[in-house]
Amino acid sequence: MKRLEVRNMTKTYDEGSSTITALNNVSMEVDAGEIVAIIGPSGSGKSTLLSAVGALLQPSSGSVIVNGKKIETLKEKELAKFRLNEIGFILQTSNLIPYLNVLDQLLLVKKMAGKVSSADQQFAKQLLADLGLEKKLKKFPNELSGGERQRVAIARAFMNDSSVILADEPTASLDSKRAFEVVQLISNEVKKRKKAAIMVTHDERMLTYCDRVYRMEDGVLTLQS
Amino acid sequence: MFLALKEIKHAKLRYSMITMIIVLIAWLTFILSGLGNGLSTLSAASIKNLDAHYLVYEEGSGSKFSKSLISASLKEKIDAQSEVEDSALFGSAMAAVSKKGIDEKTDIALLGIEPGSFIEPKVIEGKKLDKNIQNGVLANKTLQDKGYAIGDEIKVDSSTIVLKIVGFVENETYNHLPVLFSTVEQWRAYQFAAPGANNGIEDVVNAIAIQAPNLDAENFSEKIGGIETATKSQAINGMPGYMEENGTIVMMLVFLVAISAFVIAVFFYVLTIQKTQQFGVMKAIGAKNSFITKAIVSQVFVISLVGILVGVVLTYLTALVFPEDMPFNLDPTLVVLYGFALLLISVLSSFVCVRQVSKVDPLTALGRVE
Ligand SMILES: Nc1ncnc2c1ncn2[C@@H]1O[C@H](COP(=O)(O)OP(=O)(O)O)[C@@H](O)[C@H]1O
Ligand SMILES: [Mg+2]
């Protein structure tokens, strides 16, 4: 059993008279400790795929299977729980909570699940140290550089110790030196913590850190290497 | 609470301004209710102070002292009823008084009572009424500010009567006027000086106050005959202008609270709308609606509670600097009541925002540009 499977997924949008096929019979697999990349032109359906895997939107047909469980069988309440426990989303930099300091950004994830234990505190500090942020624990997002913010977002995605890590263009707002660092960090953490990760990227230079590369074109996903 | 407090701490200016709005609304509400309460006290304090359960009026008077004339001889018949524990004669009149050395006349209410009866108010200075001092009166304390003192002989306008202050009482107003309590006989001498003014009734009074905790008013009126029996609160409502005045005040407060509710709701709504993106992020990383709801509601609760408490403090401070004769009477139960009402309104209005939250699509978190 693979950690993550996508089976024959199709997603269409009705736009008045015409329908847009954002995803066309997409299938893929990612195992624990693997990081795969998805590249492709803008508007080809990469974000749509990631959203569907992350249970943020419902595909028109097909399944997402995490740890052998089909997520389309989950109810609304269970979906929130699924996102909390099984998915780590690395969002864009602007998506930190502006009034929480770096440490609290991570602890928020635990708060959502209930109480924050001292073990959680330790884990959060450990993660932030891994990402070179041990000196920034009390800083607010507006006091951090773009690269630092993105590293916080990465740490947050790992905080709930989920099975799957999803990253949508995590390097979009960074210069290439920072971008390399960030992708390398993601890759390291994925290997170390045995996650199944999908990273969408524009930047072909980042692919060296990935185990496999898929290409998305007009909603059709093909394995490239 | 975690999110709520962190956010308040981080955006102190914004939240202190919102708190300020609540403070101002609370302040205004409390001041108005204090003034309203003061005004209604002024119009009927002496009747509110009566230690009686019921008042007996002339039949057809509609519980109005000014329209009621009955004979004091009814008292015997009333006292003979088994439910009645005690009864006391009562008469009211409006007058103006003056004394040597003071140019200005002062409007007062002259209330006739029996010395030693249960409706005689507590004297705070001087002596009680005395049957043997026929022209002795108890005056409301506020007359001291006008220059009246114990032992003063005061002249009653448009009569030859001269009264003598034997003691002072407090919080005794009737028809917005300070009260002079005299004996029933003295009151009669003033009120019915003109022949025939008493409608030919012997020993006339306006009403008889009775102490009777378990009385069937209707039955009682029938048994005695020629009277109607009103509860104390009916008697208060029968005071001239009392209902109208109270109605105005209540309307003002109702509008104030209703409009405040709207203003508060709009503020919190705008605040919530601004945070749509954040809520999307939280949902994307696994927040349930209830988690975000709790954050919003607890934040509104904290802000409102602080705002209302500051409003209460401000109100009491303002009361200190109000002039002495301002009819301001802050009833602690009213403060608590209005405080809770405002708190409830704020919290309920935050639930409007909560509906908005449940509509936020976590997809907004991906920040896709359409
Ligand atoms: N909510 C939507 N309504 C209609 N069309 C949409 C919606 N979301 C995405 N699409 C369309 O689906 C296609 C794929 O979009 P997306 O997954 O964002 O592409 P990418 O991330 O590869 O740039 C695009 O043509 C886009 O216009
Ligand atoms: Mg995209």
UniProtKB/TrEMBL annotation, chain A:
GO molecular function: ATP binding; ATP hydrolysis activity; transmembrane transporter activity
Family the UniProt entry places it in: Belongs to the ABC transporter superfamily.
SUPFAM superfamilies membership: P-loop containing nucleoside triphosphate hydrolases
Alphabetized InterPro entries for the sequence: AAA+_ATPase, ABC_transporter-like_ATP-bd, ABC_transporter-like_CS, MacB-like_ATP-bd, P-loop_NTPase
Domain ABC transporter: residue ranges: 4-225
Statement: the UniProt record of this protein carries the keyword ATP-binding: yes
A GO-annotated cellular component: membrane protein complex
Protein's name according to its UniProt entry: ABC transporter ATP-binding protein
Keywords: ATP-binding, Nucleotide-binding, Transport
From TrEMBL, chain B:
Cellular component terms (Gene Ontology): plasma membrane
Signal peptide: none
Listed transmembrane segments: 249-271, 291-322, 334-354
Keywords: Cell membrane, Membrane, Transmembrane, Transmembrane helix, Transport
Domain called ABC3 transporter permease C-terminal: residue spans: 251-362
Subcellular location: Cell membrane
Chief localisation class: membrane
Record's bilayer topology term: Multi-pass membrane protein
Assembly and binders: The complex is composed of two ATP-binding proteins (HrtA), two transmembrane proteins (HrtB) and a solute-binding protein.
Family to which the UniProt record says this protein belongs: Belongs to the ABC-4 integral membrane protein family. HrtB subfamily.
Record's function text: Part of the ABC transporter complex hrt involved in hemin import. Responsible for the translocation of the substrate across the membrane.
Protein known as: Putative hemin transport system permease protein HrtB
UniProt organism field: Lysinibacillus mangiferihumi
